[in-house]
Structure prediction request, 628 residues.
Amino acid sequence: MPMPGGFSAIRALSRSLFEKCFADFLRVYRVLPSWLKRSTLKVFFCLALLATTEVLSLLSISFLAVSIAAPERLLGLGAVARLFNLFPQLKEFFADPRLLALAASLSVAGLIAAKNALSALVNVKAAQLDTRVALFAGETVFRQYLHSPYTAHLAGDSRIMFQALGWRGQLGTMFRTLILVYVYAAISLVLFAALFVATPGTLLLIMTVVMATGAGVYKAVKGKTDVAGRRAAEYGRRENQVSLNAMSGLRETLIYRQQRTFFSSFRQVCLDCLADRTFLDVAPSITMWTLESVGFLLIPSTLGVMYLLQDASMARITGTLTMIMLVSWRVLPMLNRAMLSLVVVRGLRHAALDCLGQVQAALDDPAPEPPEPDPHFALRRGISFKGVSFRYPKASGDSLSELDFFIPCGGRVGIIGPSGAGKSTVALILSGLARPTGGAVLADGRELGPAALEAYRLRVGYVPQSPYIMAGSLAENVAFSQWGKPWDEERVRRACRMAELDVAFERGLDMPIGGNGAGLSGGQAQRLSIARALYAGPSVLILDEATSALDTGVEAAIMKTIFALPQSITTIIIAHRLSTVERCDTLIRIEKGRLVETGPPALLLPRYQAWLEASFPPSAEGSATPAS
Ligand code: ADP
Ligand code: MG
Prediction:
């Protein structure tokens, strides 16, 4: 390799090391809490100790070789002479070269053992640091995820946070690897320096050749590694997407016979990234192959130079050659590990910095922990909507516009309107999960402050359109509002009875349920969701099409229970079948997010029915009512 090229490669390598990597390191270091910063510095300190023992053990090996091949050269060293002046007994003792060799070999064994013990310690500490950084990142993002307002989740922010949560491991590993890059690079440099001090002159040129070769290979490999790393990450995402789609939509895949499409796109993605993955796998080794070949070529070259140009003695040649062999045996792998770590960092960077961005955002603008519920909160008269408007995040228009109505405490209120009218959005605001973007919701005529809102939410039982069922026992699911605490068996039974949840009695409260409600029919899942709301003993119960998956008989039975609930429970019913809301005290009819009218069912239902028939005339086959 031409020397100017070699130097420019060394410059590029040092720029990578001292600008890009250092900036990445600092970016992570800055966001860490002080105790993790201290751990990082401790790891660095241990690594510096390790580097020192590494150098000492290497030098001791070289002493061992010289003590065997040319003991008189070792005894002639200035430092040794001074030592002997201090302790004359040592001089007598080491007069026997066999004892000198024994002492040298003992020091080698001791230093190597110390180095390995330290190395084990450092590895454990570094692995702990890696995991703790990942834990810190995970905790920070997860806390933000859990404390962000519900509207942030609707805006899709939670998806980004969730992905960042998955990448916390990459962040930890990148941080650890960055530290290792510096340590390996430092050890290599120190070893080179030590060898240079021990045998100056000839080695300078040789070291420069080795460094330039390493840097040159790195320079040649790095651009392609970046591209391959980015592409491999992208392919990984696509691969996941394809397999996840096929997994979550297996039923549709089988019905619409899409197996072949999924399989061939999966195969195609895997094949597409074959070349990039192969390159990423092989790239780090390219440096090793080159450096090792160059390293061992140094032995005959040096021998030749020392013999031909310097006519050096065998003793000097032995000393120098030992050094070079040590370079090839110990320093090159170190240099190689530094390069390998650099390549690993480049591969992890994309995902790790993405996660770091979310950690940074969470630290800069932390979602406040919800306040303790106001213990003095009471709801006695009712809830009123005063000019309530609501626009979903990122939506172009309002989903609710200036709604005005009053729901008295203990009232049974039905909300009717066609699909997309805004009924579920009203339920969302009534539940306290989202706050209006215009107007206000008043409880007993007062706006709810944060602590009162928490207290209000505790009184709400909410049965959404698609129930959430978690993996666990049936009782744990019913007693979700007391999750983590022992559930009250009698209360669970009562809630199940009220919700007509027969499986609870047929298969027992301990019946295991899989995630996504595996093991339950759609109707049973919905009844479980109702039982959960009733278990919480709500004073406001919101049923958002909660019985639409049930057959008419079961729905009628549940509604009978709901209407028989104590008068203290305010019930808001959004129902698909209009017969369900017939017994309500009041109906609120909305359309396109606006209030059409409110009034008793006897007045509103016939008018609404007529409107439905005019807007969605029954088809020739005489299908059922088109929309709720
Ligand atoms: P309904 O329950 O009456 O069928 P919704 O309250 O679910 O109607 O929806 C009312 C309007 O709000 C619809 O136009 C719907 O497209 C819109 N909408 C619902 N959810 C979201 C959301 N997460 N982001 C944006 N728009 C939404
Ligand atoms: Mg709805």
Residues 154, 392, 395, 399, 417, 419-425 surround adenosine-5'-diphosphate (ligand 1) (CB under 6 Å).
